[in-house]
Design brief:
The structure holds 2 protein chains of 2 kinds. Chain A has 11 helices and 12 strands. Chain A is α/β, with parallel strands linked by helices. In chain A, strand 6, helix 7 (about 170-180) and strand 7 form a beta-alpha-beta unit. The radius of gyration of chain A is 25 Å and the shape is elongated. The longest helix of chain B has about 50 residues, at about 1-55. The chains are: A alpha/beta, B mainly alpha. The interface between A and B is medium-sized, with 35 and 31 residues.
Chain lengths: ~290, ~300
């Protein structure tokens, strides 16, 4: 009697515990399922990221819809959209033919939300030593490894630390397309190959002899943007007005990309970025808005 | 109360014995299947690269846009950082283990070990951040390098990361050597250093090898910290022993590129092949080490 009573109790307790666990699990699943309906995923270019992050905050306050934003680079944005993992890809370059071919079932639709320039940047030490402008040819030769010292360009007697970016990065596509004529060109002169804008910016800051490529919004007192010497001999500074009037040679559109024409929350979010409030965010992030 | 407990346990134990047995067997089976599945999946997805690229995989040019997938630069980087890490961490770690096990009082040993094990639990991304923000800059200044992001930087950072593993397991290995061996040696009139060199170290050899093996596995597989400080360029330096240049390891390459590739493309397949190469390397080194340091060689249990 005593024995079976003990067993019953234990079994009863185990049953109750199992039931509690199951109920808890079910609740979590239900909650997770509910929130999923009210959220959008975006990923890709770290150049477009600051705009979308700020816009996502405002959009949530206005419409109560969560936009989850991740980095990764333009290539990641396109791949994840192609594989259906995200609703909005952020890209700062055009989609390549290879990428379109890679996802034959996806109809990529791009939405321009602003403009930016890719600026050749140098460490402030080099800028202060007198290298304030270079021609595209000179920059190209640096990346090809034909120019290896700042002395060859009239600067200090220091080897150039050539910082390249990962091949699928939007900034690199745009930069190399203009500088060397091929967006996926190899750069045998490169010393470091880094990823996003922050990583590139840090490396240029830490060095006293570096050259790199950055979005215009990432320039600061340690990372100086070079003016570009055009073929007719005039120089163009990397300034917002030169980007909006198209004089600066390396400009690009900042894009959001969706799979097919956007609808519902996706459309609402893109429309928000295109609205006056959204375009102000674009300007505040250091880029050129569409009307400018 | 006491009587009740006693009467319940024997009946329950027949059941719980069966349940416990089944639970343990199923757990073992699941673990084994997971390991096999990983190897199988790696092999299946790297097959496209293996069958189409063949020997081209073992060249030194990696350029997916042009269909070139040579993994030598990454293979070199992985081996190099691991060799550097172990070359620094083994002597340093063993000396520290000797100190904690042979020289430190039992009470302090406990506290020191506790701190060391805390150190082993620091997430690798923190090491990476410290490495890229301070350490690589110091190293660059110290050796007057163009950039402090080098194979050496990654190697030293890895050495620091695997050090707690070697120290704490090395300390266990030394501590497990039974007292009677030391006492006998002391009784023969040996000096403490002679006891350590001729008695304790040879006896603890197998377990120390195990500690080193675990450290090696971590060094080869570490991704985040290495990725942040190594510079990310797929180049083998012209002089193979020049370690103060940027490089790339298999893991840092995978970390940087796997998300940019389309699932099941040749690029993806080649990256997975690198993962497979890493797995084979770890397995081979483990097998070799286990062959040379068989547990059977141990004189005590």
């Amino acid at each position: 009697m005593l024995i079976s009573g003990g067993r019953k109790n234990i079994i009863k307790r185990a049953k109750k515990q199992a039931l509690d666990w199951l109920t808890g699990l079910l609740l979590i699943l239900i909650i997770a399922g509910c929130t999923k309906n009210e959220s959008l995923n975006a990923a890709g270019s770290t150049t477009v990221l600051p705009i979308v992050v700020l816009a996502a905050e405002r959009f949530k306050a206005l419409h109560g819809v969560n936009v989850i934003v991740n980095a990764g680079g333009s290539g990641v944005g396109i791949n994840q959209l192609g594989e259906g993992k995200i609703a909005i890809g952020m890209i700062s370059r055009n989609i390549s033919d290879a990428e379109i071919k890679r996802y034959p079932n996806v109809n990529f639709v791009v939405h321009s939300i602003g403009k930016d320039a890719v600026v050749p940047v140098v460490s402030s030490e080099i800028y202060d030593a007198g290298i304030k402008s270079l021609s595209l040819r000179q920059i190209g030769k640096i990346y090809l490894g034909e120019i290896t010292s700042w002395k060859q360009l009239g600067g200090p007697d220091k080897d150039i630390l050539v910082i390249d970016k990962e091949k699928s990065r939007g900034t690199r596509h745009v930069f190399m397309e203009i500088v060397l004529g091929d967006k996926e060109v190899s750069a045998p002169g490169a010393d470091l190959v880094l990823g996003d804008n922050n990583e590139e910016q840090t490396a240029v800051m830490q060095s006293d002899s570096a050259i790199g490529m950055l979005s215009n919004a990432w320039l600061n007192s340690d990372v100086k943007g070079l003016s570009i010497i055009l073929q007719n001999g005039s120089t163009v500074e990397p300034k917002l007005e030169n980007i909006s009037n198209g004089r600066f040679p390396i400009t690009r559109d900042l894009l959001l990309v969706t799979s097919g024409e956007p609808a519902g929350n996706i459309k609402a979010f893109i429309d928000f970025i295109l609205s006056d409030e959204g375009q102000k965010i674009v300007r505040d992030s250091g880029y050129v808005s569409l009307e400018q | 109360m006491k009587g009740k407990k006693l009467s319940v346990i024997p009946v329950m134990s027949a059941w719980s014995n069966r349940i416990g047995r089944a639970y343990i067997l199923i757990s073992t089976l699941i673990s084994a299947i997971i390991i096999l599945l990983i190897a199988l999946v790696l092999f299946i997805y790297s097959w496209e690269a293996i069958s189409q690229q063949r020997a081209d995989l073992f060249t030194s040019i990696w350029n997916p846009a042009a269909g070139q997938f040579g993994i030598l630069a990454m293979l070199y980087g992985s081996l190099m950082v691991t060799v550097i890490a172990l070359a620094i961490a083994i002597p340093l770690g063993l000396a520290t283990a000797l100190f904690t096990s042979e020289m430190l009082g039992v009470r302090y040993r406990f506290h020191v070990k506790f701190l060391l094990e805390l150190l082993a639990g620091i997430p690798s991304v923190l090491y990476g951040l410290i490495g890229v923000a301070f350490f690589s800059v110091w190293l660059g200044d110290l050796f007057d390098l163009q950039s402090g992001r080098t194979i050496l930087t990654a190697g030293i950072l890895l050495a620091i990361m695997v050090l707690p593993t070697i120290i704490t397991l090395g300390d266990d290995a030394l501590h497990n050597v039974p007292r009677q061996y030391r006492e006998a040696a002391q009784g023969l009139g040996l000096y403490p250093h002679e006891v350590i060199i001729h008695i304790v170290l040879p006896l603890a050899k197998t377990d120390i090898a195990g500690a080193v093996l675990l450290a090696l596995g971590r060094a080869l597989g570490e991704t985040m910290a290495v990725m942040l400080v190594i510079g990310g360029i797929d180049k083998i330096p012209p002089s193979l022993v020049n370690i103060m240049v940027p490089g790339q390891t298999i893991t840092s390459k995978l970390g940087r590129e796997i998300e940019e590739t389309a699932f099941a493309s040749m690029h993806f397949s080649a990256l997975i092949f690198m993962g497979l190469a890493l797995l084979v390397m770890v397995l081979a080194l483990t097998a070799i080490a286990q062959h040379y340091f068989r547990p059977g060689l141990r004189l005590y249990e």
